[in-house]
Structure prediction request, 415 residues.
Amino acid sequence: MKSTPRLKQFEVAYSHTQQRDINARPMPELGGQYLHTAIYTGYTEQEAWNYFEGIGGSVLTIKPLVRHRWLGGTTSRSMKLQILQSISFNCRAGLSPARAFQQVTSSVTGPEKTILNDALRSMSLGKPFADSIELMEWYDESTIAVLRTGENTGQLAQALHSAVAHFSRSSDLIKIIIGTVVFTSFDLFMAVSSIVGTRFGLIPSVKEQGIQTEKPEVKEAFEKSLELATNVNDGLLVGTLLIIMAIGFIVYCIFSKNPDMRKRGASILNRIPTVGPLLESVALSNALTILAELVKSGVRMRNSMDITLRATRHEGTLQYLRTATKSLDRGVPPRQAFAIEPLSMAEKIVIQSSNDSAQFSHSLSNIAQSREDIGRKLAKRFAMLALVTSLGYSGISVGFSLWVVYIQNSSLLGG
Prediction:
């Protein structure tokens, strides 16, 4: 899939014979012209250059403007959802997307106002609505894809409604996944703390103290036991380092801007027990939610499929949607085209029983909710498996810690 160029912001210094804003100041060294500084939103530096040259200015310097808004900055997901909902409500009331966005921006205060104004300035320059929203760096790729495809097909108002549903559901599922990751990370931290404490605290203390006995066989047993405890804890430390590196690599892949790296990270996660089915349930729930909202809004099935495909990243779910799309193109009714794997038998029956678009949309919503419930159960199961695994992992260290304590007590008693 060809990537869409992203909007960027450029800080431009240019001279002009007229004072075009109140911040411009006369520069004698420029022959009486005025020095201006402006922010331009565009795709390339050349585009920004051409714009200011086109209004009669002479560009002096131009540089990309970098705003540090990693993962959307400090703006909460609930705030982002409320703004998206407000835009959608205004559009459904008859306003154009740009006018709806302007009205929402005028009612917002605080640090979010600056970010919204950047997007509004982009729209005023004639940039696409979805590209301007993407400039805010608030919404994930799937949400932007829904808006962009809806804009390209002339059904942006309906796409906004679907984007709200998608973003709302993904927010709930993200809370589940983040909670699971935090819980697992805490378990891993406790296990690592136990191993490090044993290896660099207890074992060196016992080794320095030695054993108070003259029996050679007791000394030999003490040294061998201490060496075994040291080797086991060293092995656990190496294993822990490898686990942390593997987790770091997966996280890097998932958040990479390179599509191939993201695909590799997803492929690794899909092979992990419980995690693979969890991701499939989450992705299928999101995709069917988007599709259901579009069908309910009266969007043509083919356009609905294009928007849903653009918003989906999970390979298994993409394959499901592509297969259904091919069947639709051959004239197969939707209730039959979608009643295929990976849906369960019960889910297929629900789809096949729909007789019109309203029932079909309702069936998709029910399956999406069912898949969300499955995702929650799998997340809880993964958290339990992670707990048991981390307890077993740290239990090995604790067991050898107790063995070292036993050796230490034996040395104090003289064997």
Observations:
- The first helix runs from residue 45 to 54.
- The chain has a mean pLDDT of 80.
- DSSP finds 15 helices and four strands in the chain.
